[in-house]
Structure to design on (651 residues):
């Protein structure tokens, strides 16, 4: 009875706030795509809570009287949040509900808390408390380790006044420790990445049994889960979970692929579709000012970047995230910004950092006020760094979606933010072809800037030994070879651009590449490929090399978006961890980066300065590269560290 009264009172509150849930009705598309494996009979109830229907005044959490007092207490005392974000309002005003939900929402709008509260309410309905013996009641699957940890932290805060225990099961961490934690403690909420979860469900009966009572499954960043090739793992996991459950699926996009590959099998047919974005609305936040600058790789390239970073208001109001297309460019730019902006702390996160390093660097960056994080797309989605005032993207993003996700790292929770995209002239067709409907203004380069300080430039040059230059160059070519077709450029153009890119750092000695390597990457124009490949092309009636590079080499960029993503299984957002593809070639070999070793610890800063692998620590602490030499067999750099002590901080 009390429950019913609370429900009616909540309905009255909704009406006060102008929310009529029956307002927007079933789109046809929803019905046609809702064939689900175990029933096709029922039509879905589709609720569209697009922004134009949202009330002007945000609702308070307190208005959701259904919320368990311990949840209200945590919102009040731990989070100190009063009002709900639109996605939270769209989801929580539907409580109590057993219906499955597909929620489409922009990034940075508070999805995490929306699904955590909804799931918690479902399992504690009618004020019931979960019992120790009930096992895992809430399972949350996240595509990346960082995001999983972030969700686990929020979940722990939310259940502060409950006796519930939260576990985080991600790859890259010791499986025995995770098993021990699971068997020794109650296990109410599990946050996991798909790879590790699938492994543990297969090999660890304790978790499998705990999940037999699962009540709510959350699939966070569903589009990214599929983009990262987790379809098979997700299928395996879904098979091992009870069919009678509530599933909440959150995604930034609502595509046929998601419906076909995931939502049709994960959700029951009558799920609610909650769209807080709407078809017409772009997925970037309108309060995030976006601009782009076309900047040739010339003597002015670095000085313009230095100028933006030191004078642009958004670059100095808070934290800055700088995105680069490849790991090697990221390492390079971390060094460059360190030299050019000696007063700012520069962190780097990419695939050559191990999990504990990434966690530590993330923590330091999160706690900072105006530090700079230089990173690849491993940080593009889901990761929440409060207070990022500028996202600077240097080089073309791998896809329009990645552009949007990267921009989503700023302007979060309704805060101000700005995004600047720097493209070279040959990349600028990206704006016309892929971003024509996104409000991106033109930003002009400042004329007559002084070149960057010659000492800084000399230091940057010195930090790059020949093998590192080659790695930067080949990674650059590898990345762009996959983008040439989309940019509408001849294949050989990235060779020229790669050379100019190096020139802009004062490097004039461009590495030589063998013809076979160039061909391997698909960087030779068709008419120049001539007879050596002609017969193969003719035989198949097409050019075998088509427009993409072959896959028989290992790349070290994070964003080869056009390749099929399913040939490897990972549980982080990082393409560098996939099994190396076998190839053996001479000097054009991509595979020069150091292998991870058991020494990949996060404690290098406590060790005396001596030789160590590039995987250890980040650029802020890493000694400069100009004195490095590298043994191919060990795949490690050996640094002498005369300049290491000049670094101002540890990370
Ligand atoms: N009701 C609220 N009031 C104030 N701040 C909030 C509220 N809900 C969430 N936040 C804050 O907003 C930020 C973004 O939240 P969150 O990370 O959950 O967004 P998201 O939609 O999951 O983003 P992404 O798509 O990038 O994963 C976080 O810093 C979070 O603490």
């Amino acid at each position: 009875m009390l429950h019913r009264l609370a429900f009616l009172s909540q309905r009255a509150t909704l009406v006060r706030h102008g929310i009529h849930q029956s307002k927007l009705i079933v789109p046809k598309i929803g019905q046609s795509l809702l064939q689900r494996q175990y029933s096709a009979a029922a039509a879905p109830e589709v609720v569209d809570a697009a922004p134009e229907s949202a009330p002007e005044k945000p609702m308070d959490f307190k208005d959701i009287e259904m919320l368990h007092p311990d949840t209200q207490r945590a919102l009040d005392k731990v989070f100190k949040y009063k009002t709900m974000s639109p996605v939270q309002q769209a989801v929580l005003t539907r409580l109590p509900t057993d219906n499955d939900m597909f929620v489409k929402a922009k990034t940075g709008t508070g999805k995490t808390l929306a699904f955590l509260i909804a799931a918690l309410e479902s399992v504690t309905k009618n004020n019931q408390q979960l019992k120790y013996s009930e096992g895992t009641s809430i399972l949350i699957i996240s595509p990346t380790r960082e995001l999983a940890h972030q969700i686990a932290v929020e979940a722990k805060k939310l259940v502060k006044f409950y006796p519930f225990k939260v576990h985080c099961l991600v790859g890259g961490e010791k499986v025995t420790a995770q098993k021990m934690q699971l068997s020794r403690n109650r296990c109410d909420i599990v946050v996991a990445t798909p790879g590790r979860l699938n492994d543990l469900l297969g090999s660890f009966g304790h978790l499998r049994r705990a999940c037999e009572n699962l009540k709510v499954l959350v699939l966070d960043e569903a589009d990214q889960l599929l983009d990262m090739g987790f379809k098979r793992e997700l299928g395996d996991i879904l098979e091992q979970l009870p069919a009678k459950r509530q599933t909440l699926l959150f995604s930034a996009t609502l595509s046929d692929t998601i419906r076909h590959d995931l939502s049709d099998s994960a959700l029951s047919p009558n799920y609610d579709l909650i769209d807080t974005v709407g078809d017409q609305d772009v997925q970037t936040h309108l309060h995030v000012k976006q601009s782009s600058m076309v900047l040739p790789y010339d003597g002015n390239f670095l000085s313009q970047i230095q100028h933006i970073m030191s004078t642009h208001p958004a670059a100095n109001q808070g934290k800055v995230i700088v995105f680069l297309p490849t790991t090697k460019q990221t390492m390079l730019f971390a060094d460059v910004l360190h030299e050019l902006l000696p007063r700012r702390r520069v962190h780097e996160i990419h695939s050559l950092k191990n999990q504990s390093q990434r966690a530590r660097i993330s923590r330091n960056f999160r706690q900072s006020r105006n530090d700079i994080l230089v990173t690849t797309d491993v940080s593009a989605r889901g990761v929440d760094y409060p207070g990022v005032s500028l996202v600077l993207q240097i080089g073309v993003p791998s896809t329009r979606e990645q552009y949007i996700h990267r921009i989503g790292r700023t302007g979060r929770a309704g805060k101000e933010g700005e995004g600047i995209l720097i493209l070279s002239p040959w990349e600028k067709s990206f704006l016309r072809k892929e971003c024509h409907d996104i409000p991106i203004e033109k930003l002009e380069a400042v004329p007559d800037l002084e070149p960057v300080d010659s000492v800084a430039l000399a230091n940057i040059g010195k930090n790059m030994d020949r093998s590192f230059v080659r790695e930067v160059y080949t990674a650059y070519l590898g990345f762009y070879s996959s983008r040439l077709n989309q940019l509408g450029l001849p294949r050989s153009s990235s060779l020229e651009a790669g050379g100019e890119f190096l020139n802009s750092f004062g490097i004039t000695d461009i590495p030589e590449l063998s013809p076979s390597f160039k061909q391997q990457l698909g960087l030779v124009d068709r008419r120049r490929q001539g007879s050596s490949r002609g017969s193969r092309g003719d035989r198949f009636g097409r050019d075998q090399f088509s427009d993409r590079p072959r896959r028989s080499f290992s790349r070290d960029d994070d964003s080869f978006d056009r390749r099929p993503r399913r040939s490897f299984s990972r549980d982080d957002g990082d393409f560098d961890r996939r099994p190396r593809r076998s190839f053996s070639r001479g000097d054009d070999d991509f595979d020069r980066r150091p292998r991870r070793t058991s020494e990949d610890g996060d404690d290098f800063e406590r060790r005396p300065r001596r030789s160590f692998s590039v995987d250890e620590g980040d650029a802020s602490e890493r000694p400069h590269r100009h004195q490095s030499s590298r043994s191919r067999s060990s795949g490690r750099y050996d640094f002498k560290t005369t300049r290491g002590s000049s670094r101002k901080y540890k990370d």
The longest strand covers residues 288-294. The CA atoms of residues 604 and 617 lie 6 Å apart.
